[in-house]
Amino acid sequence: MYEYASGLIRVLGKKILDQNDFERMLGAKTAADAFKVLNDTDYADNLFGLKPEGFEKALKRDEKDLKKLFFKIIDNELLLDFLFLKQDYLKLKLYLKAKFNPELKKSRVRPNLKIPRIKNPTSEKIDKICDIELYKKRKKIAKKLRDKFLQKICKKDLDLNYDLDFIKTEARNYAYGTPIILEYYFKKLNASRKMRTIMNAKLNNISQEELSKNI
């Protein structure tokens, strides 16, 4: 299952930001120089018309492209839900925090999710309850798919912070399948996180030594 998707993803995965790219960005003298590194990666097509200060737009474009790609090559709604539910729950967190905090700008977007009951809501409580609901849904999906790999990572990662090294190790044992798909997905998320950290630091003149501690 997922033979075509796995094969395509293996090819696309070669262009994801890697350690060499991160080191080039870290060593760049300016934010503009760090931004140029992205032209050699899979972000290249999403940099058009952007300056270093607009890197967040590149990330949003890339996020849309990733979702569009997966919906095109993966013909399994449950697996797609497993991957992209987190985005829905992030929106739910923003919606609930705005709803219960008059100082925050009201969110017009109400996610198509069941709104959990929260007594005496605080920002921390909303985060915790939404994370628990997301974990339960993902665990339920993994069971419904009868996918041992998904069940394993759900059992391993109760806090939802998936161990990329663990996923990479598991993926080596498969020619195709969900491990290959999840490895690519979480490598993309990891690359986006690091890219955001580096670009913010470069734009705010944070030293390379200090920045290296967070990468």
Taking all Cα atoms into account, the compactness measure Rg is: 19 Å
Structural class: mainly alpha
Counting structural domains, the number is 1
What's the main sheet like? none
Question: Based on DSSP secondary structure assignment, what is the total number of beta strands?
Answer: 0
Could you state the order of secondary-structure elements as H and E?
A: HHHHHHHHHH
Instruction: Tell me, rounded to a whole number, the average pLDDT.
Output: 89
Helix content: 55-70%
Q: How many DSSP helices? A: 10
Give the N-to-C terminal Cα separation.
35 Å
Which segments are poorly predicted (pLDDT under 50) over 5 or more consecutive residues? none
The backbone outline, from C-alpha atoms, is globular
Strand content: under 5%
Task: Give me some keywords for this one.
10 helices; mainly alpha; 215 residues
Give a verbal description of the structure.
This protein is globular. The mean pLDDT is 89. The chain has helices spanning 3-12, 19-27, 31-37, 55-73, 77-100, 123-145, 148-156, 164-171, 178-203, 208-212. It has one domain (3-212). The protein has 10 helices and no strands. Helix 4 (55-73) packs antiparallel against helix 9 (178-203), helix 5 (77-100) packs antiparallel against helix 6 and helix 6 runs antiparallel to helix 7. The longest helix is centred in the last third of the chain and has 26 residues, at 178-203. The chain has 215 residues and is mostly helical. The two termini are 35 Å apart.
